[in-house]
Write a structure and sequence with these properties.
The protein is of the alpha/beta class. The chain has 17 helices and 25 strands. Keywords: ATP-binding, Coiled coil, Helicase, Hydrolase, Nucleotide-binding. GO terms for molecular function: 5'-3' DNA helicase activity; ATP binding; hydrolase activity. It comes from Thermoproteota archaeon.
Length: 637
């Protein structure tokens, strides 16, 4: 239990804000120590869940070459690609190995530290980025408890946990009032946020509240660009690759660098990648080396094919010598290639002024020893306090961007939503430093009636659609069914349906699923492209069932948790549940689902299951009826 210094009442472990008076609980050393113990226990439980998952996906590889800082492994299955974080299994434990420099069947890995491994040994390896993320958080907790912090870590921890007497926010003018890429004029709330961000001094933070469609990504890019022009070094980070990519692709490529795996970044971002830039600079020199490597790999494969025949005629010694000679030549080529790639990568990182990376990768090679003037952490409401700290300890100034009304951190072993909210770094900092928070106020993305519900009932009148939003409608001239009328952008379809439960406990609803498929077919016949349609459901079982019966891989069908940060012209949201509505009723989750649509939002559910105690769903149903978008059974006949 934690005690509140202000009201004297006790709160459950895991709370960072007093539920009685709203005071931040972690200011005294005893509460901070208890909280860190709680987080350590929670992260260990989460780590064990992740460990069970990734152990199922392990593969066996043979060590071809190993040095102090690099290892080359021949894999039975070519599963790993450049940028993957790899672990190895030793005595039943998953230990960190390194980051893949070159993927395929023969993978080269930059080691985190020298290891006692031998050539020709077999090694069980697995993808372990999430696991290592937990380890980084656990290591940081231990450093805090033992007071073994460097200067950057100490200042970030002090700002997070102790009472800080900060100056009032100050403004500094940007070089202009234009967006970095498209050069349109930024609105008043965007400019105000940018000016206060540029006015930050060392050991200060700013909290930016960016509801859907208010231009937070462009604001992040503008802040980073203006700080670069002032001579600063900037880290743009998040727990998701997409959030990092969205901001980075707005920035000039010559000053920006993306550290990550090519397969996990947007296609438009690949020229920003560290590996892409290094390879482009090295050009024909690297190409010649890699062609030689490919040829020797083919040679080794050919040697393997003649093994049985050469052993049969007694050429076993000649076979081994020939194979070893090829492996030795391959080893030297790997060493030469890896060395020039490593040297060029270090040079690029040293020269980069704006770097984009996930929170976990920002603490791994080649960024583990890199520090910045300012860090911008996007989608921070989904990030736990200890995960956000991995970003904060990289810089002298901290800008947290998020939306406390969207998704919160997800813990597989924790169900108490109030504790989840209190463990969000964004929610915690917003409560602690409310006077240092600013809103982005103008919404540009969706039809006025679609965003109107969240603007009024979720954001309580703090955001406003711009006048052009009323013209964002489906561009179809004819519609066979009234609910597809472009002038009715928000719709609730009442279906007399019942939920079913899959073996794993997840819910699905056959009638709703079939209605979803019918609507998609009608939309496609009206000329709406598959990539502009999205289907959202709270439940994995409903997602899987719709995918099974639709058989269209071009249409994105996913759970709410996987759709944050995405948008589509048409969103179909299937409520699915008809009994216990507590999971569906989650305000943050519904807000995400309802704000993904630009031109048309279609919600499908059994209206008879929605009652007054289902506060947000009941309000939504009433709102849709007011807008003339409520339709009952028979509309598809």
């Amino acid at each position: 239990m934690l005690i509140c210094d202000k009201c004297g009442k006790w709160s459950k472990l895991g709370y960072t804000i007093c539920p009685y008076c709203g005071y931040v609980l972690l200011h005294n050393d005893k509460n901070k120590s208890l909280f860190l113990d709680f987080m350590r226990s929670l992260i260990i439980r989460e780590r064990n869940e992740e460990k069970r998952r990734i152990e199922r996906d392990k593969i066996v590889g043979k060590i071809i070459d190993v040095t102090e800082d690099m290892i080359t492994i021949e894999c039975q299955i070519p599963r790993f690609e450049e940028g993957d974080v790899i672990g190895y299994i030793k005595e039943g434990k998953i230990e960190p190995l390194g980051i893949v420099l070159s993927g395929g069947r023969f993978i080269t890995i930059a080691l985190y530290k020298p290891l006692d491994l031998k050539e020709e040994e077999n090694l069980e390896i697995c993808e372990s980025e999430v696991l290592i993320g937990y380890d980084l958080q656990l290591n940081l907790i231990e450093k805090i408890k033992k007071n073994e912090l460097n200067e950057f870590e100490e200042k970030a921890i002090k700002h997070l946990f102790e009472i800080s007497n900060l100056k009032n926010l100050r403004k500094a003018k940007p070089s202009d009032n234009l967006d970095v890429k498209e050069k349109f004029v930024l609105d008043d709330s965007q400019l105000e946020v940018i000016e206060y961000a540029l006015g930050l001094e060392e050991n200060e933070s700013l909290i930016i509240i960016g509801p859907p469609g208010t231009g937070k990504t462009r604001v992040i890019a503008k802040i980073a660009y203006e700080l670069y022009k002032k001579g600063e070094r900037v880290l743009i980070t998040s727990h998701t690759n997409r959030a990092v990519d969205n901001a980075l692709e707005i920035l000039p490529i010559e000053i920006s660098l993306r550290v990550g795996r090519p397969e996990k970044v947007l296609p438009s971002i690949r020229p920003y990648l560290l590996s892409y830039k290094a390879r482009s600079i090295l050009g024909s020199k690297l190409e010649d080396l890699e062609n030689k490597i490919i040829n020797i790999k083919k040679e080794i494969y050919g040697i393997y094919q003649i093994k049985d025949e050469w052993y049969r005629i007694g050429y076993w010694k000649k076979y081994r010598d020939r194979l070893q000679d090829a492996k030795n030549r391959l080893k030297k080529l790997f060493e030469e290639r890896n060395l020039i790639l490593m040297e060029e990568s270090k040079k690029l990182i040293k020269e980069a002024k704006i770097i984009g990376s996930t929170l976990i990768k920002s603490n791994l090679p080649p960024l583990d020893n890199q520090y910045f003037d300012t860090v911008l952490i996007d989608e921070c409401s989904q990030v736990s306090i200890t995960l956000a700290l991995l970003g904060m300890i990289k810089a002298k100034k901290w800008i947290l961007v998020g939306d406390h009304k969207q998704l919160l951190p997800i813990f597989q072993t924790l169900e108490d939503k109030k504790i989840q909210e209190n463990l969000s770094a964004f929610c915690y900092m917003l409560n602690k430093y409310k006077e240092r928070s600013l809103w982005l106020k103008w919404h540009y993305r969706s039809n006025s009636n679609i965003i109107g519900f969240s603007a009024h009932y979720i954001y309580e009148g703090k955001i406003f659609p711009v006048s052009s939003c009323k013209n964002i409608k489906l561009e179809i001239k004819e519609y066979p069914i009234e609910f597809l009328n472009p002038d009715i952008p928000i719709v609730f379809l009442h279906i007399n349906s019942k939920e079913s439960i899959r073996e794993d406990g997840s819910k699905f609803n056959e009638i709703e699923a079939n209605i979803v498929v019918k609507i998609i077919k009608i939309l496609r016949n009206l000329g709406i492209k598959s990539e502009n349609i999205g289907v959202i459901t709270p439940y994995r079982a409903q997602r899987d069932y719709i995918k099974e019966i639709l058989k269209n891989n071009e249409i994105e069908i996913n759970t709410v948790d996987s759709f944050q940060g995405r948008e589509k012209d048409v969103i179909i949201f299937t409520i699915t549940s008809t009994k216990d509505m507590s999971f569906v009723e989650d305000e943050n989750r519904l807000n995400v689902a309802f704000t993904r649509a630009r031109r048309k939002l279609i919600v499908i559910g059994n209206a008879n299951s929605i009652r007054k105690e289902h506060k947000i769903l009941f309000k939504f149903l009433s709102y849709v009826k007011e807008k003339g978008g409520y339709f009952t059974n028979g509309f598809l006949n």
